[in-house]
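To whoever picks this up:

The parser on our side crashed when reading a file containing two proteins. I've narrowed it down to the boundary between the first structure block and the second sequence. Both blocks are reproduced below exactly, byte for byte. First block:
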Amino acid sequence: MSRLSRECSYCHKPMAADEFKCKSCGNMVTTKTAKPEQPYMMGYEETVLDRYSIVLLVIITLFFAPIAMAIGGVLLFNNDAIKRDAGKILVTSSLIMVIIYVILFFVFS
């Protein structure tokens, strides 16, 4: 069993598992450090709205304007520019649909 099970986070020299002070650079190493060949975590990439999502948003806007307005209002405060643009489209189109519904209601009643 090898005594060298970790490395110094400052000079990257091998250290024993029970050592807390590096013998080569003299720095205190209190936590177990990751090996350099260990891959780092990749960032999460969001994709652009696909065709089916856009169709679903249009259907929601046409038939459920208040729900589309609420979803668009939430998307307006997102950090992603694409989602903000989708929120603007949803809020604007749902407001137009509400106005159309009100006009139709007064015309046919």
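<<boundary where parser fails>>
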Amino acid sequence: MKHRIVALAVASVLVTAVSATAVSATAVSATTTPPRAPDGAGPPPPGRTPPPRPTPPPGTGSSGEAWAWTQLTSHGTQIRYVSTDTSQTCPSVRYTLGTQMTVPLQRVSTPVGAHFPTTVCESGSQTPVPLGASNAHLLPGTVQAATLHPTGGHLPLPTWTTTTRPGTIDVIGDTGCELPVNPADPAQHCATAWPFKPIADSVARAAPDLVIHTGDYLYRNDPGRADDKARNPGCTMRTDASSWACVVADFFRPAEALLAAAPVALTRGNHEDCTQPGGAGDAWFRYLADELRNGSCSRFPPPATIRAGTLNLVSVDSSSADDSGTAQVNTYARQFDIVNQAAQQRSSEDFFVVTHKPVWMVKAAGQAQGAVEWATHVLDDAVAHTSLGRLANNVRLALSGHIHLYQMLDFNTRRPPQLTVGSSGGPLDDGPIDSNAMRQQIGTPGQTVHNARTQEEAPTATPPRLGGVFGYGQLHHNNGTWDLTFHRTDGSVRGQTCTLSTSLTNKSFSCH
């Protein structure tokens, strides 16, 4: 990420069947913010006294504002709901599955001070929305917030079955508006030169079956430098960074149309780190993670696996992966062993690995042999140190972000192609000259780059480095394989359509 490299785990398993009888759920007991949990720790035990109800932040009104969306998790399809209203109650969701089903959402956490003045609810691990359900909406009489997003409370649901898969998947990444703390670093113009909302609106118009976010949501390290403070009350000072108001400013508000159009699978980025209590990592686990928590942060949570019909996503949390060292090889080797075990258990189905930091993405490449810079060495070494020594045959694709570019890379071997989508919001990085990257070796063991396609503009430096292009990626299922296209901010296609090979031993893509 240029200077940001040193600076979504999501995804989830769709349940294949749930009883069509009426279900009820008891709200999870509220808890106060516990001490920071050790890595991998789950939610704190229930039963503590709820904290006092806070005064809603400026701009929310006495009855508050609520946001609802559909997220794929390792427990299936969940409806999630966050509100600043003072009732600390959860609404009910109604959907059709033969007959109308009504399910009360479960309370996960209650307000903690002015930083997180929210009640968080979800449909819960025991009552995910089953495949085949339709017409999901929050019951108006159970919503206490004065304002609800999306308007009307209608929520998108999966369109696939247990024997099919999402037909169209849009991929976005690195979407936040960058406002560094260091005044010497340039601040992005969030009001006029931040493309995330136009991109999210384009994705919404395309109405994909699923949206995957490859990580990095919260870039407002110093909201005081923003030029859009007027539209984001409660997110105006450095002390507000990573607060709920800033989560809304950096993600929910610009993504509102997208969240109303498609379910999402969210992967954690390095900006959602564990550097301080109440920081971006705590916000991630409170609102967006696979397993929601009441106020703890883990550096290396286990992979989360999704089953989207016959497509499986396994999210490896690389938010804390060392960009330059290899000390964490054993940690991530265990993670990729879990990926391989899941893939081998469903050897006839496709698997995508989703990890924020790329395993094999080429950042720069010169003409001389070996003049190639790539990311991230520790992840590649970890794959080589798995029990299999590589990723399983049916791992068809690695999806990542982190580098603010769009790039497809393949090796024409058992190693899966790498698709990097980090071009959906933050300032763009320079990229490599693709012709220099091809025929060079990267990885452990070294493998020759067979094909490289980076979406770039004119050279921006001497020696030449190419500037990136804002946009997003799209995968379209096509007769047992996948077509890949890059879309500009307005949704128009830029460049060629590239098709993944069906071979599991010579994995590549061809463009036309």
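After patching the parser it read the second block fine. The first strand starts at residue 65 and ends at 73. The radius of gyration is 22 Å.
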